[in-house]
Automatic annotation (TrEMBL):
InterPro entries assigned: HIT-like, HIT-like_sf, HIT_Hint
Pfam families: HIT
Domain HIT: from-to ranges: 37-106
Name of the protein in its database record: HIT domain-containing protein
PROSITE patterns in alphabetical order: HIT_2
Organism: Afipia felis ATCC 53690
Protein origin, superkingdom: Bacteria
Length: 138
């Protein structure tokens, strides 16, 4: 882990922390319209997948798979969307979004279509705990 790594201020503002995996920090986007997670590799200066070495890329793929399986089991979506974009926030982060044909944006991308709906505090705790249990984050 790089000691100079820190979470981008926009990601910190827009998320709830779940915990750390070996490479990445797992976060929940503060929008209850969609079960929407982020994995952020804790590597200073990483903005693209190629900024990680091959071992880190493999670890990130493992973490994406682990988190995706947990999210799918918890939320039972119609489809999972996985993407690393970073056009607004340059820090490397991977979106994992559980989509339903009944969600507010279906079948379009989730960005900017409807206003973010804050989580009920009890629901945020329940979702966070379910993720920690499925992914084995203590």
């Amino acid at each position: 882990m790089s000691s100079s790594w820190s979470l981008h201020h926009q990601l910190a503002k827009d998320t709830l922390e779940v915990g750390d995996l070996p490479l990445s920090r797992l976060l929940i986007i503060k929008d209850s319209n969609y079960p929407w997670l982020l994995l952020v590799p804790r590597r200073a200066g990483a903005s693209d997948l190629i900024d990680l070495n091959e071992v880190e890329q493999a670890q990130l793929t493992t973490e994406i798979n682990r988190v995706s399986r947990a999210l799918k089991e918890i939320t039972k979506p119609d489809k999972l969307n996985v993407a690393a974009l970073g056009n607004v926030v340059p820090q490397l982060h991977v979106h994992i979004i559980a989509r339903r044909t009944s969600d507010a944006a279906w079948p379009r991308p989730v960005w900017g279509l409807v206003a973010a709906a804050p989580y009920d505090p009890a629901e945020a705790v329940r979702f966070t705990q379910a993720l920690r249990e499925k992914i084995w984050i203590t």
